[in-house]
Amino acid sequence: MSTFVSAREVMVSGATGYVAGWLIKRLLEDGHHVHAAVRDPTNEQKLAHLNALQSDLPGTITYFASDLLTEGSYAEAMAGCEIVFHTASPFSLTVKDAQRELVEPAKLGTRNVLEQAKRTLSVKRVVVTSSYVAVFGDNADFLAGDKEFFNEDDWNTTSSLTHQPYSFSKTEAEKEAWKIARTQDQWQLVTVNPAFIMGPGISPYATSESFNFMKQLANGTFKSGIPNFGVGLVDVREVAEAHLCAGFTPKAEGRYIISAANSSFPEIAQILRDRFGNALPFPKGTAPKWLIWLIGPMIDKTLSRKVLARNIGYPVKIDNSKSIRELGITYRPVQETLTEMFQQLIDEGVVVPS
Fold it and tell me: Among 26, 231, 243, 259, fewest CB within 10 Å belongs to which?
């Protein structure tokens, strides 16, 4: 295997995404030539934040048209690259057919990128963005085993097409990646499994469930009380750094959970209220579990009573020590992550304090 330190050309799929933006920034800072795989290389508005990075940093970007669900679509983008960062993934929480809309696209996208890597002789390492939901399905899972904390040896065994289908799709996609990796010995696979990703975006117009959640905290959605939902939190900049280290650290191998802290929705709300005061209708208390269980499915159809029963009131207990020990990740305080993210929303006029 190569030591990767001299790699100059790398491919990033889903290059306009939330995580990919910070990853590309780091790659450009280190002087690499980024093959940015995007849906439409002619969409200047979508690429403006990446072009702005390129003008200030030593690295360079070349854009390539690629479709996650089309076989062979990444051939041109991947040509000559030693490292492939596969960050693109279909994402939707509201689906009618989980198999057709979530699982099959997630597996097919993984298959198309990794099978192309098998056909591209320059590739020596593939880094895939997975998720910590491929490690566990529900917060209640932490009580089911004999371990206090879950780590990279654990897999989600409780999600299915009918219960937590998004988590199931991420699990199936990562399993597909490891299955393909075992069919060859040309390149090494490393997966990055981030917790709930927060923090400012390279693009102020970045879209993700993280930004939607922050807007809900500010618009009064949870004014009467927020569910006591345990969650792991991590800064998007640490997630990007983890990808970089997973790609360029010779001894990096296997899976890496990337999580700064075992937190909760009420703690997030408290941090923002402490920093931004009463100018916005942040939740001031925790909603009773019985009330959320009763009305949750009526407000949000993705929240089944089983999901609520198995997650509200249960803490997340994730072990991040492998990422610190092997990748050298230093996690910033979640207070910094959350306040900088929310300040960006204020600065861009997305959130307007009274």
Answer: 26
Residue for token digits 């997340």?
A: 316
| pLDDT (tens digit per residue) in 186-209 | 999 999 999 999 999 997 666 678
What contacts 84, CB < 8 A, 6 or more positions away?
10, 11, 13, 78, 113, 117, 123, 125, 126, 127, 187
Write down the CATH number for the domain with range 9-200+233-259+316-332. 3.40.50.720
330, 245 in Cβ contact below 8 A? Answer: no
Q: Kindly state the DSSP code that residue 72 receives in the 8-state scheme.
A: T
208/129 Cα distance (integer angstroms): 15
Sort 297 into a burial class: Cβ within 10 Å, 0-12 / 13-18 / 19+.
middle
The total of other beta-carbon atoms located within 10 Å of residue 56's CB is 9
Q: Are strands 9-13 and 196-198 parallel, antiparallel or unpaired?
A: unpaired
Return phi, psi of residue 337, to 5°. Answer: -60, -50
**Report field, pTM of the whole predicted structure over 0.85:** yes
Is 107 noted as a catalytic residue in this protein?
no
Q: Any idea where the domains of the chain sit in the sequence?
A: 9-200+233-259+316-332
